[in-house]
Amino acid sequence: MLxxxxxxxxxxxxxxxxxxxxxxxxxxxxxGSNVFVFSESQITDNVRSLQRAYQxxxxxxxxxxxxxxxxxxxxxxxxxxxxxxxxxxxxGELFKARLIGASPERIVYNGTSKSVDEVTQGVIAGIxxxxxxxxxxxxxxxxxxxxxGLTANVMPRVIPGVLGGTVAGFETGHVGSxxxxxFEDLPEVVRVLRDYPCLKFRGFHCHVGSQVVRAEAFASAMxxxxxxxxxxxxxxxxxxxxMNMGGGFPIPLVPEGTMPVHRDGSPLPEDVQALMRGTLSxxxxxxxxxxxxxxxxxxxxxxxxxxxPGRSVIGTAGILLSTIEARKTRPDGVDWLLTDxxxxxxxxxxxxxxxxHIVSGNRASEPADTxxxxxxxxxxxxxxxxxxTGRGRLPNVRWLPKNTGIGDCLVVVGxxxxxxxxxxxxxxxxxxxxxxxxxxxxxEWIARRETYEDxxxxxxxxxxxx
Length: 466
Ligand SMILES: Cc1ncc(COP(=O)(O)O)c(C=O)c1O
Known about the structure:
alpha/beta; Lyase, Ornithine Decarboxylase, Chain A, domain 1; TIM Barrel; 9-stranded mixed sheet; 29% helix; globular
């Protein structure tokens, strides 16, 4: 089954998967393994469909792409060229946004623990908004802006008090998480705003979570936050001109109409299946959030309205090419396939038991009817692509063509978000390269492969660090 819903640009030709005219075997030969392959046209399509859905209801709409999902400079450049702004989550991401020439008017800055240096950078740059996570941060921004004689745009991040139906580590919209401020903090926000005329209140920010599959969560968050914004303006005189509704739209993790099962054919839990299907109608969500504005007596046309998607912009636009380096036979009849691609390359497999769909690159026309265990090269039992530790969120085998073996190319789809960004050098493994297949079909490097010298470049005594 081809992964059309996850990576529509992947086509099978003579049994081999292709991106545009490039066979994955040629790409792997030319750029090495592991290599991330991004489709520029898929990024464009993802951005355009979000813009189409939201612009219908929000005339002053902008995507502030969550660069934490993938902040490769070429990826950022392309996204910014599509009239998007950027959401930075650190001084480093702010630096990257500035480096590619993003206008400060199109940069917002998230994060729970912004340092003095980071806040200073944002204030000097004159960014569109600090999404302010706490009262103490609001005061810190006020102190710094005052000292610099500058004005800082601020948008308190409020807690909408909803659950998105995602993995616990991605639920950020409830009061038990570390993010944002409860509405009870708003009187103190008002006092701080009054104390610091250098703080310019622009509106509110909220965010439900990531891979949010409960459509109602977005509308419910907006009903609460827009009503609060209206009340806040009426009672305090601080009138919002902007609303940031956050990100979190899901992507499909499995091909349409399929669902991985355990070796004995038994299904995964229903909540896990919902997460894997990742289906949500963005046009419906946009319409339902807009209805929440109307219900609160606010007209979206009077506001700059932002969303901050990451995964839904870049997740389906990237695949990862890997190589099977070993195959071993087990007496229970389920063979192991050992690849060169571990959780150092896709850490969320370990942290969240995240499911990345795997297909054969060079046996694409053969049925994926044989159960395998699939492991990476790392020295951990948990370095596997199936349920190896009994937590029950992943299938206990992976299904691939029967003759899959050494040298084959396994294509891990839906790896555009939160992979390249989270890679590590664990076990002395250089981080993977990345290439982009441009809209005109040309393939270009966008990140070189790390070398062994890179591995030691920061260590004193290596002869490289000085
Ligand atoms: C504040 C904020 N905005 C946006 C995002 C992007 O989320 P996603 O990549 O799921 O769209 C995140 C990630 O969780 C976030 O914390």
